[in-house]
Design the sequence.
């Protein structure tokens, strides 16, 4: 997802205190049976009504504090290539180095990267040298060695917009103060989705997500007379299906993420309107409003909990996210959240990125400004954390390499 924003949120969090606090009650000697709402994302949602707080199972937790080792991309086995952008030149660079990728990425220099498709096959970017009232999207695949361009006349280049992938073919353009536009990157087919109903009061933020059928929307709602919230709406009937509470300060952060099949949404929020301090928990909701609470961090001993930048693994089993700026992973099969005690330098701007095989996570680690922080690869199977590159590169994502 791409957008340039400026927001300063002050959260007083001591890293040493965080490491010393438990995330929840360890599951030693106790097993939790996953429900239909909490199992791996590939299982269909069968509930017909929203669950209640009483039947939500507590979470298990474990701490796996990793020591970051120094290494190189060649020291660890990476599936595919990690795409990064150099801080000093905006040049795209891949790790491990590869002549094919380097030659292709040199053609993209100076153009804004919109993202890598969920199947890790396509790198999509916006061309700068296009007419004033158009934007032109281009992409290439490292697997098929093919390229394409699509011109979109409905979006003026000077209009602020951010993007996200709806599926492996469609890219959604959320446009400031306008309806989102869904574009098929390969056919050029576009659809304007009317979400600007007066009843909704949808705020323009990265929280806006559409269902694949384009008849449901989940978005940040901001009205002076009510607490800030994230609301799931049915568009044809203008009916509210589900609501969770957040704060105005965190609304600009990425708090929602659709699953690989598009059937469910992981959401960060609170069941009740906020009182200080901030406590966000992780929830799983489908497009009918059936919900499962995945974490109960208020009872886990934390002084505050800010969950953001939620990212599904490609196989739909895991959710990676920042918890108070530290990497955590929720396993939908075991219902256990693991804290790796590894910190990012900017939890608002940087996302954790999954490898195509759902085994490794790459992100920008902690470092003092300026710069984006070192590139860290965490392997959740091996239980390792390796710094493969020092400060100077911003991680864009992971591409498959099956040539």
Sequence:
């Amino acid at each position: 997802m791409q957008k340039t924003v400026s927001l300063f949120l002050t959260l007083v969090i001591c890293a040493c205190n965080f490491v010393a606090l438990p995330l929840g009650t360890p599951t030693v000697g106790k097993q939790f049976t996953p429900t239909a709402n909490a199992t791996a994302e590939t299982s269909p949602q069968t509930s017909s009504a929203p669950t209640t707080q009483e039947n939500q199972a507590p979470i298990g937790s474990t701490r796996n504090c990793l020591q970051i080792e120094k290494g190189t991309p060649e020291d660890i086995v990476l599936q595919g290539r990690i795409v990064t952008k150099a801080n000093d030149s905006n040049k795209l660079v891949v790790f491990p180095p590869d002549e094919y990728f380097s030659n292709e990425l040199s053609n993209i220099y100076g153009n804004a990267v919109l993202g890598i498709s969920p199947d890790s096959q396509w790198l999509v970017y916006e061309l700068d040298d296009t007419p004033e009232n158009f934007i032109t999207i281009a992409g290439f695949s490292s697997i098929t060695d093919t390229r394409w361009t699509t011109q979109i006349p409905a979006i003026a280049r000077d209009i602020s917009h951010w993007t996200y992938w709806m599926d492996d073919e469609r890219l959604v353009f959320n446009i400031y103060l306008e309806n989102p536009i869904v574009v098929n990157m390969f056919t050029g087919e576009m659809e304007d989705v009317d979400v600007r109903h007066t009843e909704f009061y949808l705020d323009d933020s990265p929280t806006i997500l559409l269902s694949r059928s384009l008849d449901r929307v989940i978005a940040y709602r901001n009205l002076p007379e009510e607490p800030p919230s994230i609301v799931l709406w049915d568009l044809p009937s203008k009916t509210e299906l589900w609501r969770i509470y957040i704060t105005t300060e965190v609304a600009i952060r990425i708090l929602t993420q659709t699953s690989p099949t598009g059937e469910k949404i992981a959401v960060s929020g609170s069941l009740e309107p906020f009182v200080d301090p901030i406590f966000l928990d992780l929830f799983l909701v489908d497009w009918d409003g059936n919900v499962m609470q995945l974490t109960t961090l208020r009872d886990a001993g934390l002084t505050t909990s800010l969950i953001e930048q939620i990212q599904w693994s490609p196989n739909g089993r895991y959710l990676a996210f920042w918890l108070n700026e530290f990497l955590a992973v929720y396993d939908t099969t075991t219902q256990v959240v693991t804290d790796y005690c590894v910190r990012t330098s900017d939890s608002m701007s940087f996302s954790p990125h999954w490898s195509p095989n759902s085994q490794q996570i790459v992100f920008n680690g902690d470092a003092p400004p300026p710069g984006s922080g070192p590139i860290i690869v965490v392997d959740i199977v091996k239980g390792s954390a390796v710094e493969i590159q020092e400060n100077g590169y911003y991680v864009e994502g992971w591409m498959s390499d099956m040539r």
